[in-house]
Amino acid sequence: MATLNEKESRDFVSQVIVMVNQNASLLSDAGFDPTSRVGTLQGKLQTADDAEGEQQKAQAAALDATKLANKTLQLAYDDASAFVNLIEGLLGKDHSLVHKLRQLRKK
Fold first, then answer.
1. Do 98 and 88 touch, CB atoms closer than 8 A?
2. How far is residue 17 from each of residues 10, 49, 52, 72, measured CA to CA in Å?
3. Per-residue H/E/C for 71-98
């Protein structure tokens, strides 16, 4: 695909379809019927457009999943920290288990 970006590639295909359709009689006079080839290009372009739509949906879903994962992880981290604080309250801040649990946060 040369050095064209995605939009430019789509525009190229669309413009080829339009120009060939506009000049179909010229090509027919030259002994070539472009109908089948144009249909194939239109089908491929439609498939690419559909796939891009699915890609955008997947990107949105991935973003939503990332937000949910980050939010849930933060909740779990906060809960674990509160749990360590609870254990510290029960056993005292100088207990070896409390020291070990607090060390986990520093890793």
1. yes
2. 11, 15, 20, 49
3. HHHHHHHHHHHHHHHHHHHHHCCCCHHH
Domain segments of the chain as ranges? 6-106
Residue 107 has pLDDT above 90, yes or no: no
- What does the pLDDT average to over 26-50? 97
Query: Among all chains, which residue has been given the structure tokens 């100088």?
Result: 94
> How does pLDDT run across 54-75, given as a tens digit for each residue?
999 999 999 999 999 999 999 9
Distance from C-alpha of 71 to C-alpha of 64, rounded to nearest angstrom: 11
- pTM for this model (two decimals): 0.64
Looking at residue 106, its pLDDT comes to 79
Entry field: residues in the chain: 107
Q: Match 């699915």 to its residue by tokens.
A: 54
Structure tokens given for 87:
């254990």
